[in-house]
Records
---
Amino acid sequence: MRLSSKKFLDYFTNPHSTEEMPVIDRHVMKKKKFYLYKKGVVLCLITIIQRKCDKIVMKKQENDEQMEKKFAIVKNGAKMEEKAKDTMGGGRMQYEGQICRAPMERGAYMLPVAVGCSYNACKFCTLFKHLQYRELPIAQIEEELQRVKGLNGRPRRVFLGDGNAFGMKTERLLKILKLVREYFPDVAEVNMDATVTNIQEKSDVELKKLWEAGVRHLYLGIESGLPDVLEWMHKDHNTGGSIYSD
Ligand code: SF4
């Protein structure tokens, strides 16, 4: 028995109808319900897939934007490096000799102020044997500071190279420290290598001035507490200079 659409809708929308639905029509309705259920499930799946696709597209757009930003930063950095190269004739630090410093200084900005070691006679040290000691011109030191500033460098700690930078005259050291402050006001400390004799040769007033100008750590090669070992190693100090007592 076939059921007209209108009749079917009546049964379907009016469950309190007193009229008994014919068995065959119940079967048709069941089939229709099942069809509607399937259609609903398919629609849900389509909606879920659509949302997922939207999310993927949005994520891709975000990634593209981030990549563009990163690319712009890199391009900007490259431009600044080029500018520094143009103004200073080279984008890299000019360094003569081997870089050697205490591990604690690995994060510090190493600013060369001299080549080699003014003493250069310790028996065991081969770092600077092949180099003639000389102090770098102040103009060259300033060029190096300009180079790093041009690259947007903002060091908090500076290490003055080379062998025994603290052996330089106090006036020269103060000039360099002033330049460091001018270019990088955020620098919290300036450190360097020294010999025991370098320190002994400076007066208390000089040491105080250097402290006030930012010097904080001096790295010393005391090497031994035995006078004969120090002598044999050609160190420039004896135990009298390196052992402190009140
Ligand atoms: S003072 Fe230091 S850098 Fe100079 S020769 Fe001796 S160990 Fe080497």
Note: The two ends are 120 Å apart (CA to CA).
---
Amino acid sequence: MTAAAPAALTTEQIGFLARAVSRAPSVHNSQPWQLGVRGTEVDLLERPGIELCRQDPFGRDRMLSCGTALTDLELAVRALGRDCHVEYRGRADVVATVTIGRPRPASPRDFALYHAIARRRSHRRAFFGSRVPEGVRTAVAASGETTGVHVVEPGRLDKLAELLGFATRVLREDRGYQRELELWTAHTHGWGAIGDGVPEDAMSPEALPVAGLVRRDTPVPDDVVLAERLAAENLLVVCTDGDAPADHLAAGAALQRIWLTATAKALVGSVLTQPLHLTGFRARLVSELALPGVPQAIFRFGYPAVPAAPSPRLPLGEVVPGGPTGGLR
Ligand SMILES: Cc1cc2nc3c(=O)[nH]c(=O)nc-3n(C[C@H](O)[C@H](O)[C@H](O)COP(=O)(O)O)c2cc1C
């Protein structure tokens, strides 16, 4: 007797997966993903037409964002009580395929991370008082470690402050960059609101250069003050052995596991890739901080002093175009 094939996904289950994917973090909240569902196979596709020529000219952050969505997708499948297998495709459109297998109870850890998906958000403000205990910091970092991905706490905060201060001064004066950022922050409220972009409320008024997106008026304290502020935060750098799209996807997937692990431990955080795109910045970071690979993202985290509001999302019909979730929001 042959075992029955794994059951195809129902409409409700597809909606469940799409909702988890849609809550993933993405560069400028561009949500550059879609799902294509074929029975028990779910393709993660790049959503066409998203270009961030100044922030992300080579699509690295787009692929990192697809990686965060992939982690959410995998956790949602496991939360449904199904096994799954993820295969990197690396084609222009299909980023990865998740093949859904037989029933299998989710582990308590997978459940905890799945439940953190809806609570996670970018927290760009200052954190509450003290540093996070070492054991907790180590557990958060370890959650992102996987083959080819290394997660480290940066030493030499004086050097990091110098580099971030320099990047902030450059980005503040880059008119093309600032124009693009304005486009992604201006339409999130009122009449033009369409469910993507970064809302004004989510941009911290205290924004340190290390805490968010650099705008024309972002203050740049001197390097010594900046280093002191960095020392009061908890920082991780996500690095990869290689620097190809597959590495960017893996880094994004790891970043989201780190972020969800932190969220499950009642921590909050935000991510920084903006300065990494400046010519020569990554190489300087590797040499000054003696990093174990190519830096892909910096994650800062701590205990919240105040809550952060959620950012908008596109309707679920945009996540599964032409799919059964078309009527859901
Ligand atoms: C690959 C990637 C790069 C990002 N880069 C930055 C950044 O440089 N600065 C920043 O403040 N937020 C950054 N973010 C956070 C996004 O702006 C944020 O995830 C998005 O606006 C959605 O908001 P949420 O995280 O609250 O859901 C990045 C997110 C991702 C996934």
Note: The chain has a mean pLDDT of 91.
